[in-house]
Fold this sequence. Notes:
The structure holds two protein chains of two kinds.
Chain A: E1 3-14, E2 51-52, H1 53-65, E3 69-70, E4 73-74, E5 77-80, E6 90-93, E7 100-106, E8 112-122, E9 126-129, E10 133-137, E11 144-150, H2 157-174, E12 186-196, E13 206-209, H3 214-233, E14 241-246, E15 251-257, E16 267-268, E17 275-276, H4 279-288, H5 293-304, H6 308-314, H7 318-329, H8 334-352, H9 363-374, H10 380-390, H11 396-402, H12 411-424, H13 426-433, H14 438-450, H15 457-472
Parallel strand pairs in A: 13-14
Antiparallel strand pairs in A: 1-11, 1-12, 3-7, 4-17, 5-6, 5-16, 7-8, 8-11, 9-10, 12-13, 14-15
Helix pairs in contact in A: 2-3, 5-6, 7-8, 7-9, 9-10, 12-14, 12-15, 13-14, 14-15
Chain B: H1 5-14, H2 21-38, E1 58-59, H3 69-72, E2 84-87
Amino acid sequence: MNWDVVIGLETHVELSTQSKVFCGCSTAFGAPPNTLCCPVCLGLPGSLPVLNEQAVELALKAALALNCTVTPVSRFDRKNYFYPDLPKAYQISQLYAPLARDGHLDLPGGRRIRISEMHLEEDAGKLHHHADRTAVDYNRCGVPLVEIVTAPDLTGGEEAVAYLEQLRSILQYLGVSDCRMEEGSLRCDVNLSVRLAGSSELGTRTELKNLGSLRAVRLACEYEAQRQIAILESGGQVRCQTCRWDEEARRTVPMRDKEQVGDYRYFPDPDLPPLAVGEEWLTHLRAEQPELAHEKAARYARDWQLGEYDCATLTSRRGLAEFFEQVVALGAPPKQAANWIMGQVLRRLSADGLAVEEIPMSARSLADLIRLVEQGTVNRNTAVEVFDAVFTGGDPAEYVRTHRLEQSSDTEQIASVAADVLAQNHKSVEDWLSGKEKAAGFLVGQTMRALGGKAPPALVGDVVRQLLERERS
Amino acid sequence: MTINNKTMADLERKAALSLTDTERAELTAQMNAVLSCLDVLRTCPDCPPAEPSATCTLRTDQVLPSADRAAVLTNAPETDGTFFLVPRTVE
Lengths: 473, 91
């Protein structure tokens, strides 16, 4: 039997605000436990939440970039549940009138994934389970999240990962979130079911949690699809369950029967009046929206004839794309700038353990260095040496000058050095005279070496050949 | 709506409670009494949806000092001075 896999994703994205969504506590990551708490995020009686404007603005930016319709007046609801990660015993979320609805995201291959809705909510605390006690840290409680829910449009683990990569790129470009999965600022739950190929009826779904990386998302989707198919093919029924991904065992483990929406006894939060978003605010945000990765990639290909791989690599992070554009704006040929950034800059960032936002070299330095190569002042190998020297700061031209690295195009000087090399390598000269062409390459190499690499290889080659021809006559 | 045995069993599970038969009967009666108070709403005439009389006040994204941890943990039933401690609870 052939089966289709049907996946919908619920992605929680931590918004890049300084303070929490309903109080002034910091959202800093990694503070000592329970030091970023106050009566509001602890849910103490008498305290009242006040909504953070920046959290709304960041969520709206995401909503517009994902082509959603923003709800003019959205509302907050209480999602009630019994679990110690929230001291109030409810989470402030949005069920009945979420912030935005009916958007879409286009995957690089062109497939359109529908976004059903996006809503604002608060994060919960962190639990540490010990032998007989669970220790609770409420620092993360109240950190602003936007939850982005897709329609069941994804067809497998690979596509789910492609969606998340595209979503992450958009959100990072917008400055909405840093989307660091390892710090939990982008988390996703997968809803997965299978159905006979071609059927239009959805099967019973399971929800997969604890997916800490894109790789985990892909593996969990693949495992769970096979698990459900095996159950159905043996005549069984899939249970509507919430499952946890066990990274070590590489399998999904059922946790509990999945809650239905009624189980959470949602009701409007009486502490928060409705949130009104006017058209003026949206117009302002639309005007501010930066060029996104896929738009940049299309422009690089169109205007600068860069290949697909170059475009994808350069636009993978906003910081890298902006650095590249600055180098080009300073006069570097786009293809040369692309090669230097994808080769040397990424190599050094990786070696130095730096993020692309932390490139210590200025765009001006790299543009100057590329110009030195283009003008023939230094050759490529020397330029890499200069690059490494000035990567953390310094002027390439000055470095070349003070270290006397300029290429010499002085033919007489080259001829004098080459003549010495020929004199010291009689055997190679004789080999060349007897027809062994390779011997010339050796002599050119030796001459380049004697010149300390500071001469254009093509010119050195010409000079050596002229001298060899003279030997023949 | 009334609370029957099935609803009560469901609520018990979600609230992680285990009740004796006597407690269950008593709570069921009490909850049904509370719910019956809401029946008065059914006697209200239908009205058109009201426009919200106020909308959310927004605050600037500014970090304010958090409470001192010792104060935060004051009301914890159990603590080790760093964390709130609760009976081991794993989903």
